[in-house]
């Protein structure tokens, strides 16, 4: 490393976020653009270049983290960009969105704050774009083989790019009007602006990928016709079948699923709508579910100028620090995570909680009640103990005009005579479409990648699955492959 003792002399410093009072007035990303740049070399120099870099293992993509940290410390941005792109098609996505299991695996994290891997990653990616190191790489020659990718989320995009670069002719079918999957209509712009997506899609188009939007396979185009038209098919349709809140009052007006609410807010950012029909403006908002989707609802409701926002989490808060007994290094701490949105709602919270954010921990929803017009007015909850048993005397009501259900997803959507039925896809692990370790289904030439196979997961896993499924398809089409396969399907 440029300074082998960097980890002893330099404290961890993260890319700064814009002040809360400024950022809640717009939809732009929460981080100061290029915020880590002045100190990124010193931060990268905190990497110890471990003999066995556990960060590699922790990253589903196998990102070559010590290598690009060293290149940044040496100010060699072109090489850093190349090494970063060697394992990751879209590092500007993961550098913004990933919860960074690599940082949990960083050896320095045993007794010091981890290297700011994620911030270094996004800084390299942005510098790569700014200096022209990232460009279209169309294939030198075409194989004459054709592949259809169904779904344009990160898994479908990664698979399409890999297969196109390998010389195959790839078409991506997307039922929405725009490309991107959850990056487009799920994840809010304050986490990643849509211009990031557009830039990559333009790169894929320049490399030869063809996008067909507004086409739902199974409805507008039958699966049989698709199979007849292409030599191989990758199903990358995501896992967006949501969990319900099965409680009295669910039917009241003003109670919606998170994924009914967030796409409309994203459409406002796209300029399709002036105001979301479900806007939280002036409303008391209660979000049922303490995870990342709930946090996205929280940040969105704050930006829509809600009167108050509370987020209910049934889990007891285990504390800001890692619970060493439950999650010894280098396992990824799953128990409790703060999102930037949680910094934004303290002022707005009406719920009497001692926490610094808007979440009410160890709270279980009992029922929703409404007014004479059938509109929701109150969410009734009770505090629970570690075994989720109600604690006597803690029942109370929260005012609510908008209730958002963010309880996760139980797998890919299945409709009678839809895509899965037409292809005869079975159900595998975590409710996903059944496939073997090479991403292949029982239907010859049909593969499954991303959340559609794995269940609702992370962008980094979707990219890794897209890359690995592309390698499997290339092998199936040609008998061998030089494409990397960072993971197996199980
Ligand atoms: P998706 O992104 O779901 O894309 C699937 C695409 O397939 C969609 O565009 C869909 O319209 C299309 N499709 C479906 N059926 C058909 C059909 N029959 N014909 C044509 N097209 C079809 N992960 C992170 O790492 N960080 C985060 O901060 C984060 N935030 C999230 C916030 C929310 C609100 C949600 C819901 C998820 C979040 N995730 C996050 C998870 C992450 O977005 C997903 O794991 C990832 O997008 C999965 O990628 P995918 O390509 O498998 O599927």
From TrEMBL:
- Write out the GO MF terms: iron-sulfur cluster binding; metal ion binding; oxidoreductase activity, acting on the CH-NH2 group of donors, NAD or NADP as acceptor
Q: In terms of domain of life, where is this protein from?
A: Bacteria
Keyword Amino-acid biosynthesis attached: yes
From the UniProt entry, list the residue stretches annotated as the region Disordered.
1-20
Kindly indicate whether the keyword Plastid belongs to this entry: no
Q: InterPro entries annotated for this entry?
A: 4Fe4S_Fe-S-bd, DPD_II, FAD/NAD-bd_sf, FAD/NAD-binding_dom, Glut_synth_ssu1, Glutamate_Synthase, Helical_ferredxn
BP terms from Gene Ontology:
glutamate biosynthetic process
Pathway per the UniProt entry = Amino-acid biosynthesis
The entry's keywords? Amino-acid biosynthesis, Glutamate biosynthesis, Iron, Iron-sulfur, Metal-binding, Oxidoreductase
Q: What range(s) does the 4Fe-4S ferredoxin-type domain occupy?
A: 38-69
List, alphabetically, the Pfam families matched: Fer4_20, Pyr_redox_2
Name this polypeptide is given: Glutamate synthase subunit beta
Q: Which organism is it from?
A: Streptomyces tabacisoli
